[in-house]
Predict the structure.
Amino acid sequence: MTEQRPVVVSGMRPTGRLHLGHLHGALANWVRLQADHDCYFFSADWHALTTSYDRTEVVKQSEREMFVDFIAAGIDPQKATLFVQSQVKQHAELFLLLGMITPLGWLERSPSYKEMRENITDRDLALYGFLGYPVLMTADIILYKATRVPVGADQVSHLELCREIVRRFNFHYGEVFPEPQPLLTEAPKVLGTDGRKMSKSYGNAIDLGESAETTTKKIMGMVTDPARKRRQDPGNPDVCGIYYLHKVYSTPDTVAWVDQNCRTAGIGCVDCKKKLLEKLAPDQERMREKREALLARPKDLDDLVELGTRRARETAERTMVQVREAMRIG
Ligand code: TRP
Ligand code: SF4
């Protein structure tokens, strides 16, 4: 029965605890997908090495936190398959084989490769693994014959490359793989406490499952419309991170109420923040409790991931049997 559902694959690099940006940008969408798709969600630990090869210890430490966050956010390990990329060696085998048919020019032209080479100047990224990153990503996806890949806009060019590699493979060796499409759901804007995009590296993040107390502290200290200096100044919700959080957490009625009363100075920012916390604080508290329960039983968590990894390995191996046969190798 599950065989007929469309297959979804997505991965995340384990880089530590996730924040509300990850939750509303990616995880909430994964949670929705698991209801009617055959989902594979994995820790992209090999991908993390492309930029953290000299800090490998943080990769494994971050992994448990990340899986805990997945589950706290509502991913159900009974419905979706959770696994660790490096524990399914078929990813490496397919990566190698795809490398044989991927022209260098395709990789060098990749916009995200060019952009990262230009922007990241504090480390040397002239590395084979880094250039080949989208080939590994292609292997991740097509090993499970996924047709839908929920990713952010920054990953769409990788998906295009993935489809080109699939076409080339199918042309040379026969139709083995479907062409996956990106699933670009509109991610709500989530700003950090300083009004910039929420990001761990900016130090402005509210982590998923922070206590009601710290969440409240962070929200009460959060930057709002900088033009709204006094209570009687009208504000512009469109430049305010609190307003964007209302859009995620509050009812449409409340959002309309904020919009109107911000512009007319009918409410102050403190009122507005308190209103947001009515929903946000208990929501965070619920995830905090779930996280704690999961972290208290690390063995159970490891077992869940181990089970998922075994399941992923079986699917991956079935595909590799076809690949080896199609290529007449191995
Ligand atoms: N490249 C993705 C990122 O950095 C992570 C990733 C690796 C991924 N393999 C994938 C996402 C396969 C979707 C499908 O966010
Ligand atoms: Fe932002 Fe609300 Fe203050 Fe308006 S009233 S600036 S939306 S916090």
User: Anything to note?
Assistant: The chain has 14 helices and five strands.
